[in-house]
Write a structure and sequence with these properties.
The chain is 66% helix and 0% strand. It is elongated and about 50 Å long. It contains four helices and no strands. By secondary structure, the protein is mainly alpha-helical. The protein has one domain: Arc Repressor Mutant, subunit A (Orthogonal Bundle), CATH 1.10.10.
Length: 90
Amino acid sequence: MRELTCQEVMDQLADYLDDEARAELVAQVDMHVGSCQHCRVEVDTLRRTIMIFRCEERVVLPVRLEGKLRMALEQAYRHPSADVGGEGEA
């Protein structure tokens, strides 16, 4: 079985995380993720994000946090290459 590159793993993430993914693809991604921390973090993050969106429970953010998140997202959409996380304000 051929080992995938990081780019191939990223390109195949949607198929990999699909409940009906091909066994061969799952094995290849699992093999790569087992030895690549960067890809493991990406896969885990995406998997957790999907779980959050599938959750039926509605999460209510504190008003201040919701406003900061909304502003950060608006800034990110206006300036995709801007670093919105390094503002230092909590």
